[in-house]
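Aim 2 progress update. The chain analyzed this quarter is reproduced below.
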Amino acid sequence: MTEEIRNPITREFLSSLTDAGKIELFKQRAQQVAAQKGLVMYDPDPVRWITNNFFVPELKNGPLQLDPYQIGAMKEATARDGSGRFKYSTIVWSDIKKSIKSTIAAAMCLWRAWGLQWGSIITVANDLKQADSRVGYYLRRSIELNQKIKPLVRFRNYRVELPNRTIIESVAIDPTGEAGSNADFIVFSELWGAHQEAQQRMWVEMTLPPNKYGYSQRWVETYAGYSGESPLLEQLYDQGVKQGRRINVSYTGDDGVFHDLSHIETYVNDPARLFVLWNTEPRLPWQTADYYAQEAAVIPPHEFLRIHRNQWVTSSQKFVPDEWWEACEGSFSDPLPDEPVVFALDAGVSSDCFGLVGVYRRGNKVYVFYSRAWYPPQGGKIDFKGPEMEIRALADKYNVVEWAYDQFQLHDMATRLRDDGLGWFNVFSQASDRLVADKLLYDKIRERSIVHRDDPVLNAHISNSNAQTDNEKMRIVKRAELLKIDLAVSTSMATAEAMRLNIGVYEE
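Predicted C-alpha cells:
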C-alpha cells in the first residue's frame, strides 16, 4: 500500500460507511495516488482501463484492443445497479477457440484487483498448471510489459501481490483446501472439462461469499463441452441460454459511434444474476476462412463444431463415415517374401472376438493385407488354439517384424510364442498408445492413405466403431455393447507400429 492510502482513517468513520461507501473511498484514494504517479490504477470502466493498461506482445507490447462485440459484452457483464452493486454475480464468457477469452479473463482479474483493498482474486482451472499457464500467465506477462505497473507488483510463486494488498492467486483443484473462500473475483477456466467429482466440489466450495453480495463475481471462460459430460457448464448453459432471455447489447464508444450489437448472442437469467455470452461465429481479424479450412482438414467434424463454432456435441461419435472407409478400398498384392510386415492382436474371451490384422507399408500408405476374427461359441469362450496355430503359420509365411498385442488377455500366449522364437511381441498400451494410434488411423482413412481389400468382417468392425474424443485425442469404442470392433482396434495398432517403425522399404 502506498503511504498516501495508509493515511489514518478513524474506526468510527469507517463504521459509518456502507460497503459501497468504503469501496468508493478507496477508489478515490487510489485515483489520487495514481494521478500523482501518472498511472491509472483504477478506472470504473473496465474497457477503458484494459485498453490503456493491459499490455500484450502481439500489439508490439502495447495495450490490448477489443472488438466491439467484446466491448459490449464486457460493459454489460460489469454493469452496476443504482446501489453500486454488480447486476450479475456470474459471468459465462463462452467463445470459440482463439478468441482471446483467457486473455480477457486475465485482464478482468487485473482491473478488479486495482479496485480493491485487501482483495482476493483467484483463478481456477482443471488443474494448477492449466490455471497458471493460461489466465495466470497472461496476467503476469501483461504486468511485465507495463513498465508503470511492474515496479509496484510483486510475484511469489503462483501469487501476484499488488500495492493495495490485493492478491491474485492460481490454485489447484482442492475442495478441502479452498473451503471458506472469501474471494472478490473468481475465474474458472475451461469449465467444459470439469467433470470429475473433485472439480464439481471445488465449484461449490468456491461459491461467492454472502458478505460481498453484489460486489463479488465469478467469471467462467470456456467453449462448449460434451453433452452429458460437462455438468457444471451444461447447467449454466441451461440456466442462461435455455431458461434465460436473450438481450440486445449496445454501447456508444468514446468516439461517439453507436454500436448496435443485437446480433451478438447474449443472455441473462435475472433470478440467478447470470449473464452469458455464447458466441458461435468467427468475428476477429485472424479468424479467416483459410484458417478454418486448415482446421477442418485435421480435426474430427464434431470437434470442429465444438471448439470452432462453440456448439455442444457428444464425446462419442461415429469413428469415420462409412463412405470414407469405402473410398479406401483397392486391389493390391500380398507383401513380397522379404517385405517387413506388422501384425496386431486384440482379443476378448467370452464377450468379444479375437482379432488379427496384418499390414505392410509403402511410402506413406499402409496396406491391410490380412484380417481375420474368431468368435466365441454361444455361451462359451474362445479356444485360443485356432488363433495360435494361425499365428505360427503366418510367422513361417511372412517377414513379421513385430506382433503388437493387448496384454490383458494375451500375455500368456504372447510369452509362449515369443519364447518359441516367433519374433518380437510388443505390448501395445491400451491407454496412451491407443489414443495416438486411433487418431492416426482416423487421419489415414480421411486422407485415403490406407488401403484395404473390402473384407466384410473388417468393414463391419470399422462401421461398428465410435470415437470418444477430447480435443486432439481419440479412442475407438463400440457404437453399441453387442457390436464387435476388435479388427478396427487391431488395424489401429498395426498401422501405428508400421508408421513408427518406418518399415516402408519398397516404393508404391
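The longest strand covers residues 365-374. Residues 402 and 424 are 5 Å apart (CA to CA). These observations will guide the mutagenesis experiments scheduled for the next reporting period.
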